[in-house]
């Protein structure tokens, strides 16, 4: 009797098998669900296991010769469902190997057919402990295992929607529940605007003085800013890597420039500028994404008490990435130096990721 029956004295009303069992309970109650040579498997679909997991009990060997008697592995339902027809194909000689494996690696059972006949191998991992066991398999046991596995499959699929189903008319007995209104149909997603505008064009310029110092000018729309530093930081390489991250969909990217003393921090962050009306009720419309560009300055190399000195919205993250690419390109005329990989990665990203209308 299930918990509901024990508490109320009423009939359990769960969908599917009214008394689902764990593998441990099945192991104690009776014979194995599947026997393959000296391997025995019990497959549980107990209520204590969350979807989509099945729990498994395993025994290898007989009587005093049983050297594995293990309960703990969890196998996903889809993996077990896919394994059963593969087992049949193996038995019929259409495949030379078949494996039932836990997603987390707690158990793996492999059957092989080779020049020296049939072999079975099982591996177990539980925390810091692991074990690998080979066991004997013979053709008759394989043929018998197929209908056994298919019977388990039928039980697993019957329990696919295991859960509570209310009795018809039950809500009519509850005054508060009887007045519940049906869910309203989905509404239309309206167009939305952030008020940040469409975002401006972007231009960056990188200059060096030949003595270990550089300056970077930043223009977004009609706003301009700048930052600089020394070669303690690889600002060119870091900007190229930040641009690659933006093209790849990163939510934000940050670059730090040290100026001995002092620090500049440049931040790029995606901003939704506006959305269009949804194409149908319940479906949101496309979003147009810009990129906020900010420069913070601090007199301390640690970046403490940094002050925001520049903030502007670019029309898209890709526009920022392309501006960084154009900034870097002239500095490759005489060899890429240490920036070769970063530039190649950005160039590949720009070539591979499709452009959008706002780019």
Summarize the structure.
By secondary structure, this protein is of the alpha+beta class. It is built from eight helices and 16 strands.
Describe the structure.
The chain has eight helices and 16 strands. With 359 residues, it is an alpha+beta fold. It has two domains: 156 residues, Roll (Transcriptional Co-activator pc4, Chain A), CATH 2.30.31; 161 residues. The N terminus is likely disordered.
Fill in the keyword field for this structure.
Transcriptional Co-activator pc4, Chain A, elongated, 16 strands, single chain, alpha+beta, five-stranded antiparallel sheet, four-stranded antiparallel sheet, 359 residues, 2 domains
Rounded mean pLDDT score:
83
Poorly predicted runs: 1-19, 162-166
Report, as a whole number of angstroms, the end-to-end distance. Answer: 64 Å
Proportion in helices: 25-40%
Based on secondary structure, the structural category is alpha+beta
Shape: elongated
Order of helices and strands: HHEEEEHEEEEHHEEEEHEEEEHH
Please provide the count of β strands. 16
Number of helices: 8
Report the portion of residues in β strands.
25-35%
Could you give a short account of the major beta sheet? 5 strands, antiparallel
Number of domains: 2
Looking at the chains present, what oligomeric state does this protein adopt? single chain
- Cα-atom radius of gyration: 32 Å
């Amino acid at each position: 009797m299930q918990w509901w029956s024990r508490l109320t004295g009423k009939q359990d009303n769960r969908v599917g098998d009214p008394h689902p069992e764990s593998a441990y309970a099945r192991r104690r109650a009776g014979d194995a669900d599947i026997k393959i040579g000296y391997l025995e498997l019990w497959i549980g679909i107990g209520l204590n296991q969350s979807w989509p997991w099945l729990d498994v009990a395993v025994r290898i060997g007989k009587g005093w010769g049983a050297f594995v008697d293990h309960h703990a592995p969890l196998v996903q339902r889809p993996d077990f469902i896919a394994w059963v027809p593969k087992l049949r194909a193996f038995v019929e000689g259409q495949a030379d190997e078949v494996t039932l494996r836990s997603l987390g690696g707690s158990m793996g059972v492999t059957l092989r057919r080779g020049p020296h006949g049939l072999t079975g191998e099982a591996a177990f991992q539980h925390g810091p402990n692991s074990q690998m066991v080979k066991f004997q398999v013979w053709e008759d046991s394989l043929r018998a295992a197929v209908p056994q596995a298919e019977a388990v499959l039928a039980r697993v699929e019957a329990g696919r929607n295991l859960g509570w189903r209310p009795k018809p008319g039950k809500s009519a007995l509850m005054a508060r529940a009887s007045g519940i209104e049906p869910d309203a149909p989905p509404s239309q997603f309206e167009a939305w605007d952030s008020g940040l505008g469409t975002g401006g064009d972007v231009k960056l310029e990188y200059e060096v003085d030949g003595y270990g110092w550089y300056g970077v000018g930043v223009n977004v729309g009609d706003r301009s800013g700048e930052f600089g530093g020394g070669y303690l930081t690889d600002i060119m390489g870091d900007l190229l890597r930040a641009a690659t991250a933006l093209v790849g969909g990163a939510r934000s990217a940050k670059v730090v420039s040290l100026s001995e003393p002092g620090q500049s921090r440049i931040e790029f962050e995606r901003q939704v500028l506006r959305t269009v009306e949804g194409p149908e009720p319940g479906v949101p419309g496309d979003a147009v994404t810009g990129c906020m560009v900010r420069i913070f300055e601090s007199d301390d190399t640690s970046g403490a008490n940094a002050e925001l000195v520049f903030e502007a919205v670019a029309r898209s993250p890709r526009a920022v990435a392309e501006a960084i690419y154009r900034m870097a390109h002239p500095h490759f005329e005489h060899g890429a130096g240490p920036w070769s990989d970063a530039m190649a990665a950005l160039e590949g990203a720009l070539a591979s990721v499709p452009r959008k209308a706002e780019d």
